[in-house]
Specification:
The chain is an alpha+beta fold. It folds into 2 domains: 7-81 and 141-235, Orthogonal Bundle (Helicase, Ruva Protein, domain 3), CATH 1.10.8; 245-333, no CATH class. It is built from 15 helices and 7 strands. It has a 5-stranded antiparallel sheet. Strands 1-2 form a two-stranded antiparallel ribbon. β6 and β7 (303-306) form a beta hairpin. The chain starts with 10 loop residues before the first helix and ends with a helix.
Length: 336
């Protein structure tokens, strides 16, 4: 998801073996002594703002009754691990053989559902399954934090209070719409929720009620979650007639000034410049615009020719490592 929306807040946690939520354990919600009085006053302003926005009093009674300041959320926000893995290490952890095999099973088990989702949104099933696998290990690790308390803690903190206060209001809106009960609104320490790890704003914009039961349930309803992921990609410009990109070989005299998403050329133009497929063959003959990116800075590192779908994955999570790994996992799940 774009920017802070989704797992990008905890990319280093992803690099260590799963989604941001996978490293979390449910925590005891003890109020921090230093925050007790001020936090209570803060919640009163939240309630007043929410009432002005039209959120029902009974919703706020239920949603804010047990909200606590969680010190652990602030610790995680302050002490995110430094991201130092090389791309090959990151990819091997994220795109493990175990994950590939489970991804293939999930693709087979949900083939009919994913085919219908593809028909509606134009997103190939292997990409939906890949994101599902990377974000929450196919729905098994969706987080252990109460979302309202997490967002309230971060909004009160002050470092990014405006952003998280907006997300807190969005979370209260979701509760007011009846999609989930407050006690069941669980997610990551930063407020990302459900099997696709949507921030509340992204939920409101893209979550889908696939089964028509009146609730957009990305927490426990697999169909809603997968359709929501596809709807997000489609809404951000996904092209169902294209893939994400491919590994390429570069000529020794390749101009380093051509690296990056800012430079777009046709496949023919790249081919004329000596760029070749990973197996050394000429690039495909298609009328596509593409860019050459490096997995990480430095001469001799892995190079990839990427298309617009790669850019869409980067909107989900603004990390080259993440986007390359999604593409790689999707290809392996699809048997490529």
């Amino acid at each position: 998801m774009a920017g802070l929306t989704l797992a990008s807040l905890a990319l280093a946690s992803l690099a260590l073996g799963g989604c941001a939520a996978s490293a979390e354990e449910p925590v005891q919600l003890a109020a921090a002594p230093r925050a007790e009085s001020g936090f209570g006053d803060f919640l009163a302003t939240v309630r007043a703002e929410a009432l002005r926005k039209g959120i029902r009093p009974e919703t706020l009674d239920a949603a804010l009754a047990d909200v606590k300041h969680i010190d652990r959320v602030i610790e995680l926000d302050r002490k995110q691990p430094e991201f130092t893995l090389r791309f090959a290490e990151y990819r091997d952890r994220i795109v493990s053989d175990t994950r590939v095999e489970e991804g293939r099973r999930k693709l087979a088990e949900n083939r009919a559902l994913l085919a219908e989702i593809e028909k509606r949104y134009g997103v190939q099933p292997r990409f939906v399954v890949a994101l599902w696998g990377i974000e929450t290990n196919f729905g098994k690790n969706t987080g252990g934090m109460p979302v309202v308390s997490s967002l309230a803690t971060l909004a009160y903190d002050g470092r990014r209070s405006k952003y998280f206060r907006t997300e807190l209001m969005n979370a209260l809106t979701i509760l007011d719409q009846g999609h989930i009960q407050p006690a069941a609104m669980i997610g990551s320490w930063a407020g990302a929720m459900g099997q696709c790890q949507f921030m509340p704003s992204t939920f409101l914009n893209f979550a889908v009620d696939w089964d028509g039961d009146g609730k957009r349930n990305v927490w426990t309803n697999r169909a809603d979650a997968l359709a929501s992921a596809a709807n997000y990609l489609a809404g951000e410009g996904w092209r169902g007639d294209q893939t994400w990109g491919r590994a390429v070989r570069l000529p020794k005299d390749f101009d380093a000034g051509l690296f990056g998403l800012e430079t777009r050329k046709t496949l023919k133009e790249w081919n004329d410049l000596g760029v070749r497929s990973g197996d050394g063959k000429p690039l495909p003959v298609r009328d596509l615009q593409a860019s050459v990116v490096l997995a990480e800075p430095g001469k001799g590192t892995a190079a990839f020719l990427v298309y617009d779908n790669f850019r869409t994955i980067m909107k989900w999570n603004r990390s080259t490592f993440f986007a390359l790994s999604v593409g790689h996992l999707a290809d392996r799940i699809g048997g490529q």
